[in-house]
Amino acid sequence: MLVPEKQTVYPEYMPDELVRVRRESRQDQLLGYLRQHSDLRILDLRPALSEAKAKNRIYHRTDTHWNDVGAFTAYQAIVRALGEDFPEMQPLPATEFEVVPSRTHAGDLAVMLGLHATLTEEELNLRPRAPLQARLADGSAVSKSTVGNPGQYVSERKGEGLPRLVMLSDSFATVFIPFLAEHFSRGVYRWDIKTSPSIDAERSALIEAERPNIVILEMVERFLMTPPPTSFSGRAQQ
């Protein structure tokens, strides 16, 4: 699963003097190749995000990352795609959440501009109207703050017949993990898309040990310049 860059979703805000060299992006090239030459299930989030942006702001103004609303849109698209193989899996409806604006510090774009001490961000937070059920292994709630730093996290949720998940991801996943965790009896989320023989071996060992029903690789578009993992030899359950 590739996460579109902010400028991919909002090209209308780019300066006129920045002209695209070609119409086909790296994301287009990769997705087209994988669809022709692999049996990987590829999720293109661009259509869902393009539709969602007409209703709400889905990326932060002062940051390259999406906000809760954008992440929730991606989460719903993920679960709908998984529902093709797991029909009982249906995304949580947006009506179960309340959009709560809050003022917070500016994001990475402001830092790049040297304006982080001047600008602030109006963050759009999705607050569940009823408590979510998944918990981290230590019993704490799964939230973007508890899974917001690089590392590996494990969520658990009671429920008959729920599948198991391993997800390898970057920082964009931290915002939708709390929603996604609701659908799995056990989820292992590893913030890591770097690649090397030793890292790939660790990933394969993780998948072999967890025996998940589903493995997701999430990566933001900018990291197409960084090679993804070269090996997923661990076996997922059929």
Short description, anyone?
The protein has 238 residues and is α/β, with parallel strands linked by helices.
How far apart, in Å, are the first and last alpha carbons? 20 Å
Give, in spatial order, the strands making up the sheet with the most strands. 4-5-7-6-8
Order of helices and strands: EHHHHEHEEEEHEHEE
| Percentage of residues assigned to helices | 25-40%
Q: How many strands, what sense, and barrel or not for the largest sheet? A: 5 strands, mixed
Number of strands: 9
Oligomer: single chain
Provide a count of the helices.
7
> Radius of gyration in whole Å, from Cα?
18 Å
Helical/strand content category: alpha/beta
Instruction: State mean pLDDT (0 to 100 scale).
Output: 92
How many domains make up the coordinates? 1
Strand fraction equals 15-25%
Key terms:
238 residues, two-stranded parallel ribbon, alpha/beta, 7 helices
